[in-house]
Amino acid sequence: MDRPASVVTALPPSFLAMIDGLQEAVWLVDAQTHQVLAANAASQQLLGFPARALIGRAIESLATTPEDTLFWSDAAVGRREGLHTDTMMRHADGHLLWASRRVSHVALPQGDGLWMVTMRDLTRQRQQDEERDTLLAELRATLESTADGILVTDLAGRICNFNQRLATLWAIPEHLLTERNDQAVQAWMRRSVVDGAAYAARLSAIQEATLLHTSDRLKLLDGRVLERVSLPQWSRGRPIGRVYSFRDLSEALAANQRIEELSHNDMLTGLPNRRALMERVEYAQALARREASPFALLNVDLDRFKQINDTLGHSYGDRVLKEVALRLKDSLREVDTVARLDGDQFALLIHQADARGAEHAARRVQEAMSQPFCFDTLSFTVTCSTGMAVFPGDGASSEALLASAERAMHWVKESGRGTFRFHQPRKDVDLLSRMRLDHAMRQALQEHEFRLHFQPQIDIDSGQLIGAEALIRWRDPLRGEVSPAEFIPVAEESGFIIAIGQWVLQQAVAQAAQWLQLGLRVPVAVNVSALQFQQAQFVEGVAQALREVGLPAELLELELTESVLLRDADDALHRMQELAELGVLIAIDDFGTGYSNLGYLKRFPIQRLKVDRSFVRGLPDDASDAGIVNAIVQMGRALNLKVIAEGVETEAQRAFLSRCGCHEYQGFLCAPALDARAFEHRFGPPAATADGAAAPVRSNVRLLRGA
């Protein structure tokens, strides 16, 4: 160590050796001049200043904090009290570091003595303290940011930590928490639950089982439900305490209860829904099997409810449904069930009821519904159609029983509405076979198994061809030839008749256009189902089919049944007028079998009436058939309509129709329905003769019959 000789000789050698042996950094400062007299090796390691650079420097140039300035000013005027603080010191390279600095006065035999400045590096400790503070702050922030209330205890149950959410969940007064009164906090929590004794016993059991994982639900006095999850707290591989987390389940439980209610109850009426009904029916089945007692299921459907929504609006419709629900409930016993299935359809479960009990319930329903509905200034009546099924005869399962009741309800609808009817098994109808037939039809359309035949329509007096009716035919690979009488009703029931009808229309129009190109001008008649006619784009579909093949509209005739026209007369009139504007002809098929009405014959743009084959079959001997046919023909002629009879098989029938004034006919007397090639062969244009003249047209009916 380099130091002034005059000073060094004044210092005892043992003293100098002592400071060099210390691990702490040490400066020796002259008490009078405040100059550094000596510095040990540890000080150079701490601050980076070599001893030679320090000797003779004033201490005020090395310790420049306000605290140091004040201390050395006091020391200059005789202060001898020491100083021990943590301070910032500057390293030789300019960076600051934390150090624990102690300044002590050392008396010497000569002079004012020395100041010994000892320094210890606190930088690492400070970093560790800051890291610990950061971790603690992050832990506190984590505890406070969680949605759960957190409580941490040691193995003895003493509270070590908690967050504000815990205080909020349990409504713990702030002073209990700030006072760190563990017993008071635990007592508050125990008093807040419904069963304090059970809470205390469970908590004691949890604390005794150090490694136990638990999850409990606590019901508070204010009605809330808290979930408490408890896990052991580990440190360095051993348990040191327990962490409790608390979560408010009240809203979740209420939401689940609401969801459960909605899944079993109808939102509008509050009645049980289909799902709840099925569960109760299954319970009733188990009860009925055990006690050998039947029960009944009624399907109640409001009549013409759509008119209420359409005329009064859906708000009135909802009011009607709520009122119906109340009336149905009032008409039954408390043990019975009223459920809303869908829309305006309800179901009634009548316990311990045979056919007589079911009928009594149905009559009470009819009586309740017969009372007028009065809303605001409106008063009207709503009737209902009720189908009844009795377990076990009408169905062994809940679905089968409900289906039986629903079929019975639909039979009531078809029979005129406003009454009730028991389910009657229809052995002639195999529902499974109908499903298979429906599937086979859909496959047949994709596989091009359908084809068209055309039955000639003949002028009854001249025998000239005046048109052809397009008739669908189907040969199934497994079933063989399937009659239209078998598959058309199934198609109408499933709605597939729309696709079939569109296919028939397109094929018939295309064939008529092809014949026209060959010189054979034949108007083609196509049957249109009620469902197909009611489609919004039906008229546009007809127009597009004509455009695609370039067929004049007057060569297409659409055959509609009377029921199509009567279902919605105004809509039917509008569609028929659009068809008439296209130039398409319209005929009424099966005339006389429906609700014949002279009014619509005058209103609608109709060109032809078609007498149903059921009236032609008995001609000319059946007086009833003869009278009906004669009346239809005279009616048609009076209205300037063409009349055509179908199903004519004998000359006697044709002659009778001719005498009555019927214009046209079709049937086996002329020819059966022919495929397109056979039709062309019999009615196609003649080949030219050798001199270029055309041969006579082969259109006389006698030629067709091989006469």
TrEMBL record:
Which intervals hold domain PAS?
18-68
Organism domain of life: Bacteria
* Stored InterPro entries: Biofilm_reg_signaling, EAL_dom, EAL_sf, GGDEF_dom, Nucleotide_cyclase, PAS, PAS-like_dom_sf, Rev_trsase/Diguanyl_cyclase
Please name the SMART domains in this protein's record: EAL, GGDEF, PAS
**Residues annotated as domain EAL:** 434-687
Cite the GGDEF domain residue spans from the record.
Answer: 293-425
Cross-referenced Pfam families, in alphabetical order? EAL (PF00563), GGDEF (PF00990), PAS_8 (PF13188), PAS_9 (PF13426)
Recorded hits in NCBIfam families, A to Z, give: GGDEF (TIGR00254), sensory_box (TIGR00229)
Put simply, this protein is called EAL domain-containing protein
